[in-house]
Write a structure and sequence with these properties.
Length: 246
């Protein structure tokens, strides 16, 4: 875990509030499902912003993010050759080396980006990967999965694209050897319930509100069968059966 200052290679707007920033890659291993803390300002805001890894290449790492406040707004204004401070890679990531066979990835909203690098790693390990992507209305980033997944299932709540309804309506966990999920809590809760009924192993990425990103502030704590855990330090990926939703 190191603080580094990296160079911005590209910062692209995908839709009104969704961006992808590509920066020079810091040294060290980066696992699918991990995240970095990012900062592109001086003293006005003290806390860095947690953003999951979207894509990892030989010389760069990319983050897809939604502009929701002043911090991400400043990140969205970065241009080529600007500098950005990073802390990471943080967290445990998805267990891509542990699972084998046919794997389903289930993502919703800004929980979709971390699944791309996960799909890429799983596919490179000779697994068969399907991805289920749930949107509210406008689609983004689904084309990226075409080269790393066998099948792509898409839903939108408004019916503007794909199946009209929830992405969990399309999932059949019994068809898979494992399921990875990241997205809104109601969606992940439903996926866990479905996997429990079929006995399908499931891992969830808990993208709670992270303050420090290193387990010191306890803002991101979540309840598990083993007691309270810090999503940033002990996770963000947990086995589904460990999590307690209230």
């Amino acid at each position: 875990m190191n603080y580094t200052e990296e160079k911005v290679i590209h910062n692209q707007r995908l839709m009104s509030d969704i961006f992808v920033v590509e920066v020079s890659r810091p040294e060290g291993e980066i696992k699918p499902g991990q995240f970095f803390m990012l900062k592109a300002w001086n003293e006005e805001l003290s806390l860095m912003r947690p953003i999951s890894v979207y894509r990892v290449d030989a010389n760069s790492v990319s983050f897809m993010y939604r502009v929701v406040g002043k911090g991400t707004q400043w990140i969205s204004q970065l241009r080529r050759f600007d500098r950005i401070r990073l802390l990471g890679a943080l967290g445990n990531g998805f267990p891509c080396e542990e699972v084998k066979g046919k794997i389903a990835l289930v993502g919703g909203g800004v929980g979709i980006p971390p699944l791309y690098e996960t799909a890429k790693r799983l596919s490179s390990n000779a697994n068969s990967v399907d991805v289920y992507l749930g949107y509210k209305d406008v689609l983004f980033a689904f084309e990226e999965f075409e080269d790393v997944c066998n099948d792509i299932f898409i839903s939108s709540e408004t019916g503007m694209e794909g199946y009209k309804g929830f992405v969990t309506d399309l999932l059949k966990p019994e068809k898979y050897d494992a399921v990875f999920t990241c997205g809104p809590l109601p969606m992940m809760r439903k996926v866990i319930e479905m996997c429990k009924k079929t006995g399908t192993p499931i891992w969830c990425s808990m993208e709670n509100h992270f303050g420090c990103g290193i387990g010191a502030c306890l803002v991101c704590s979540c309840k598990t069968v083993l007691g309270m855990k810090r999503a940033c330090k002990d996770g963000p990926v947990f086995k589904g059966e460990e999590l307690i939703f209230e």
